[in-house]
Amino acid sequence: MQPPLPGPAMILHRRVVLSAALAAPPLAAPTLAQAPAPTEAPRTLPARLLPVPRSVSAELQHRIAAPYPANWDHIPPDTAGWRALQAASAAEVDPLLPGLIEALRITVTPTTIAGVPAFDIAPRDMRPDRQGRLLVHLHGGGYVLYPGRAGAGEAMLMAGFAGFRCLSVDYRMPPDHPFPAALDDAIAAWRAVTAQHDPRRLGLFGSSAGGGLLLATLLRARAEGLPPPAAIAPGTPWCDLAGEGDSVNANAYVDNVLVSRTGWLGAAAALYAAGRDLRDPLLSPVNGDLSGFPPAILTSGTRDLLLSDTVRAHRRLRRAGVVADLQVLEGQSHAQFLDPTVPEAREAFNEIGDFLARYLGT
């Protein structure tokens, strides 16, 4: 059906807007320093029902229809509570890993790198075009969840779906090891890996907190004179711990993984920062200088609470002249492309793997 023609009021409105735009001086690319404090009133939205889209696989529809996680809004009251939450996250994931390892036809070997625990993960049948290349992985979990092998699931998917050997770093986390412990471990591992391997054959990837830590690691590596990887893949990076992006509000209670920053996520940011300014670029690397970064592919979803973190990081990279691709997956909440039971996961990792392969030397 053809849309109705605009009436006189709409035509007048467009003329006023166009005239104002033509009269205004050219806009410079926005920077954080230029961004004005918000002065406009917020928008009130009516209550609504949000249907499950038919534009995704049946498996993903099932995930979209799932209720919020039971304890998304439970904030541990003390250190013991955070430790219990951390242990529970590992206990939930660990029993699933043997089946995943077998289904993906990979090997998972505990190891250490520069004194940091890690997992060496490799396909049982290495693809010839992925030989001699290594991806270093930094796991997600709000800087507090998924210790041990439970944090290596994303690297298992990368090895199984995209065919790369991966080294997953089991960095230290709060409540016992707040910032900068995770960054210190990531840098120590990266320093050791680059001493043993040609950086032109190395990639760096991770999602959520792992994506934010990835970007912070590159900022610090550059400051310390360490070589960058050939390419990076920050998935839905938590690169703004202050929560100033649009989707933190626009997708609140739409995302059925993180749900809202008012739950444990916001508390985890404060726990990790340990009193440091949340806008510090080593905590929120979207505020840092991303010039000179390697080619990047960033992944998010239309319902992701951190969609704006991903979009803003992508724009900062592009403005800095960095080659950067952005894939936004239909209907997905935070990091649901890490769910191996949905077909979109293989599609996402194939896309990421092919991008990385284009830039990693042979």
TrEMBL record:
Pfam family, one: Abhydrolase_3
Keywords assigned: Hydrolase, Signal
Signal peptide range: 1-28
Residue ranges constituting the Alpha/beta hydrolase fold-3 domain according to the UniProt record: 135-336
Superkingdom classification of source: Bacteria
Family as reported in the entry's similarity comment: Belongs to the 'GDXG' lipolytic enzyme family.
Identification of the protein by name: Alpha/beta hydrolase fold-3 domain-containing protein
Lineage start: Bacteria, Pseudomonadati, Pseudomonadota, Alphaproteobacteria, Acetobacterales
